[in-house]
Amino acid sequence: MIRVLLVHDACLVRSVLAEWLRREPDLGVFDASWHSAPGSLRSVRPDVCAADLDCSDAYGIPPLGELCAREAGRTPPRLLVLAGANRPGLLKRAAEAGALGYVDKESSPEKLVRGIRRVAQGERFIDDSLGFGFLKAAEMPLTRRELSVLSLAAEGASVAEIAGSLHLSHGTVRNYMAAITRKTGARNRIDAIRISQGEGWL
Amino acid sequence: MIRVLLVHDACLVRSVLAEWLRREPDLGVFDASWHSAPGSLRSVRPDVCAADLDCSDAYGIPPLGELCAREAGRTPPRLLVLAGANRPGLLKRAAEAGALGYVDKESSPEKLVRGIRRVAQGERFIDDSLGFGFLKAAEMPLTRRELSVLSLAAEGASVAEIAGSLHLSHGTVRNYMAAITRKTGARNRIDAIRISQGEGWL
Description:
Chains A, B: Keywords: DNA-binding, Phosphoprotein. Chains A, B: It comes from Streptomyces cyaneochromogenes. Chains A, B: This is Response regulator transcription factor. The first copy, chain A, has helices at residues 11-21, 37-44, 64-68, 88-96, 109-120, 131-138, 144-154, 159-166, 170-183, 189-198; strands spanning 2-7, 27-32, 48-52, 78-83, 101-104, 125-126. By secondary structure, chain A is an alpha/beta fold. Chain A folds into two domains: 2-138, Response regulator (Rossmann fold), CATH 3.40.50.2300; 144-198, Winged helix-like DNA-binding domain superfamily/Winged helix DNA-binding domain (Arc Repressor Mutant, subunit A). The first copy, chain A, has a six-stranded parallel β-sheet with strand order 2-1-3-4-5-6, sandwiched between helices. In chain A, helix 3 links the parallel strand 3 and strand 4 (78-83). The longest helix of chain A is centred in the C-terminal third of the chain and has 14 residues, at 170-183. Chain A is elongated. The two termini of chain A are 37 Å apart. The A-B interface holds A 9-13, 15-17, 19-20, 54, 56, 59, 82, 84, 86, 103-109, 111-112, 153-158, 186-191, 193-195, 197-198 and B 9-13, 15-17, 19-20, 54, 56, 59, 82, 84, 86, 103-109, 111-112, 153-158, 186-191, 193-194, 197-198.
């Protein structure tokens, strides 16, 4: 029996999807929102955590780290994500969090079942149609530091606030913003944020 | 028999949800993405169109108008939306598009079935838990003109470009942006965009 924790933020969708998975005799299915996922992980101790990369609390950035945090005396579950090829930033984050499985939301639900079984055996599962998304993820133009600057700007921080929290001069922050705008092919700062959020980098 | 067109952007979720609805003997269920919905409406001619307000093409603004467009010789379907109380802007847009039904994504799937049956009879159906969202929608602080200015800014347009496309002076656009920032309680322009997108106004 494979114990699966299904993480999705919309309760209505989550219950229907969990019920659908429960028809498979080898799956024991539990479900949680992103908010309640850390607690459910501790109580359910799933073999596989299947998480939708959309998160209603944050546009773009689900708290993947919390799903994979190692705790004493506990084997972390194997992570499978439901993703889209159009948001390479989220694919990259999932890979960095150690996800083994990647199922395209444009796939059939049968593929989710296949992915869960493969990941439960410790094997990687990558949906063919996500290939282009992974390619784009590899071509991410911004450095880690540039992403930090842009994330703060996207939260509404001023140049002075960004400079203060990253211990940089105002001029350096402006240079970073100019480089970010150029590298993302944006028209200005707001456009750079829009483009980066759309692709899932922020 | 109630003919239902289910509109949701993620194929995997959509197929499972459609299959779940098909267990009801009085529902004839078809499904489509937002992109293919206008074509499906013409071929399926549903009694009820049940649409998820999240749309992968645009953060926040599903093309609701296309679901409700009147065409010669065709009765438009009754519209039911799957929504969240945390994005009042989307609730308001759905109301403006003439939606009869509002089901909370945090509800149980049984409520979706109840909503579809009520809306098919031409009756309004509003999930109790969406009440606070409707209250917030009524308190929307920005005028239509301010929203137009902010939408263009969010797409990356400069003050000059906004002025040009709305036939305003640069100073007037700056005044609008200052008023928007104040009214949304934002720290600056980028923060105003972030807040407004989060609530579904943009």
